[in-house]
């Protein structure tokens, strides 16, 4: 048995209003007059109050607004990296990602690609990154994915959707300021929040569970319930903490059947992570029976209408393509079933599952 030895975020600030400390955090990195910082910011914040609060030094820094209508791609990462390289022959002293999982993943990937040559598609996989990244900071403005805590940056590449998984991917610093998640529209808040709830369920129900993962998942799930069921007055702080802890839980365990199915839906039909997970979870009664009522109750409580009958009438080839992607998620199925997962995860079982979606 070989135990995981993984990198965690070494520095973090948590608290309402803590975004104001970003300038001070960056000042510690700015050592020479021509040092510069790259800001990678979700363009949903363009023209909003957050824009005027960005500690951008106009004379030297570069601000890149990013569009996350589609999930991040290797092409987008390489384009952003090139923009930074054209801006200066020097490396930046920090890359700051401000937004949701998509924006934080873009910032992580750019910080890695500035020091690793050849384009991001080359590094999709596990531990392929050779050189440490440029210092990078993550600041979530929507909570649930746990991308602020994780060692991956998920990218859609020429062949597959797969992360740049490495110890170097982990942020050097995160700032968790729950004021920043206040304006998220309800549907998106729910879908991204459920990503966290699902991380906890898959971790707790998986065969990889140990006391490290359990401790984080149980607490994170409790916080999710306070947010989505009890409507706690401190729900923004609680969701932000739940997201981080859900990410820590799966760092030592793994996600499961829901993420495997969701990856199939994402790759073939383009469903984004949060909503794709909700669509998938809704048909996983056999896998997570004890959690179905809670999940459907939360959907009802927040008036969430998931798309219906998406796969019912799709051509067999399309279903087969989704089955293939889903089946290829070996570590996820190993978490669900243990070593013998290949006997259980058959085309027939998955085809039936997709037809119910
Ligand atoms: P997102 O980053 O895709 O953003 C979702 C939507 O919310 C976007 O329209 C965005 O503009 C908007 N938004 C963000 N902040 C807002 C705010 N404060 N107010 C209003 N709107 C706001 O959402 P997400 O669910 O956080 O991230 C999903 C992405 O994260 C996917 O690309 C997925 O692959 C990735 N992901 C990464 C990890 C990881 O560990 N790296 C884990 C899970 C998911
Ligand atoms: Zn997830």
Task: Describe what this molecule looks like in 3D.
The chain has two domains: 171 residues, Rossmann fold (3-Layer(aba) Sandwich); 170 residues, Dehydroquinate synthase-like, alpha domain. It is 44% helix and 11% strand. The protein contains 14 helices and nine strands. A six-stranded parallel sheet has the order 1-9-6-4-2-3, covered by helices on one side. Strand 2, helix 2 and strand 3 form a beta-alpha-beta unit. The longest helix has 19 residues. The radius of gyration is 20 Å and the shape is globular. The protein starts with 10 loop residues before the first strand and ends with a helix. The mean pLDDT is 97.
Explain briefly what this protein structure is.
With 357 residues, the chain is of the alpha/beta class. The protein is built from 14 helices and nine strands. Zinc ion is lined by residues 145, 195, 199, 259, 273.
């Amino acid at each position: 048995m070989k135990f995981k030895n993984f990198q965690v975020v070494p520095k973090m600030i948590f608290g309402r209003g803590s975004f104001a400390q970003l300038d001070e955090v960056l000042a510690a990195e700015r050592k020479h007059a021509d040092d510069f910082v790259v800001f990678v910011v979700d363009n949903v914040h363009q023209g909003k109050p957050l824009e005027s609060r960005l500690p951008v030094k106009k004379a030297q820094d570069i601000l890149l607004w990013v569009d996350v209508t589609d999930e991040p791609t290797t092409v987008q990462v390489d384009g952003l990296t090139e923009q930074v390289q054209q801006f200066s022959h020097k490396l930046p002293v920090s890359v700051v990602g401000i937004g949701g999982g998509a924006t934080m993943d873009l910032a992580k990937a750019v910080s890695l690609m500035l020091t690793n040559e050849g384009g991001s598609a080359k590094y999709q996989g596990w531990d392929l990154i050779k050189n440490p990244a440029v210092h990078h900071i993550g600041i979530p403005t929507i909570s649930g994915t746990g991308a602020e805590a994780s060692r991956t940056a998920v990218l859609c590449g020429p062949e597959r959707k797969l992360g740049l998984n490495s110890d170097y991917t982990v942020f050097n610093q995160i700032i968790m300021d729950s004021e920043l998640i206040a304006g998220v529209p309800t549907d998106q808040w729910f879908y991204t929040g459920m990503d966290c709830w699902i991380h906890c369920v898959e971790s707790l129900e998986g065969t990889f569970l140990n006391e490290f993962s359990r401790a984080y998942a149980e607490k994170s799930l409790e916080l999710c319930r306070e947010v989505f069921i009890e409507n706690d007055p401190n729900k923004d702080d609680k969701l932000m903490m739940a997201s981080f802890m859900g990410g820590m839980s799966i760092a030592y365990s793994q996600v499961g059947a829901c993420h495997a199915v969701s990856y199939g839906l994402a790759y073939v039909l383009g469903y984004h992570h949060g909503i794709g997970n909700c669509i998938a979870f809704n048909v996983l009664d056999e896998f997570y029976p004890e959690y179905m009522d809670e999940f459907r109750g939360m959907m009802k409580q927040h008036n969430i209408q998931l798309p219906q009958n998406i796969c019912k009438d799709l051509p067999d080839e399309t279903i087969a393509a989704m089955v293939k992607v889903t089946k290829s998620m070996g570590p996820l199925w190993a978490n669900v079933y243990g070593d013998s997962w290949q006997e259980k995860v058959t085309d027939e079982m998955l085809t039936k599952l997709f037809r119910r979606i």
